[in-house]
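@channel sequence for tomorrow's demo:
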Amino acid sequence: MTATHFDRFVAEALTADRETDSGLTPDELYGLYTSWSLINTIQPESPEALRAGLKELGIDPDHNELSMTGPAAADYILASAPSLI
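structure tokens (generated this afternoon):
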């Protein structure tokens, strides 16, 4: 996928505007990305491709202060904890 694909994911599903004790883990980032991809009917790339795409955008998947936002966040949270439904 193009950098624009990952740019769009970052713009629509991630935010740094909230105070957080820790950022998202690589697994959480990929789970959120998978939810975002499914909502947007886009075939998700591999975890390695996401890591590379985020690094190209200046985001360290291992050390960040990002949090989830938008419809993909809700989808990811509900998919991760089905007992909440």
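heads up for whoever presents: The first helix runs from residue 3 to 13.
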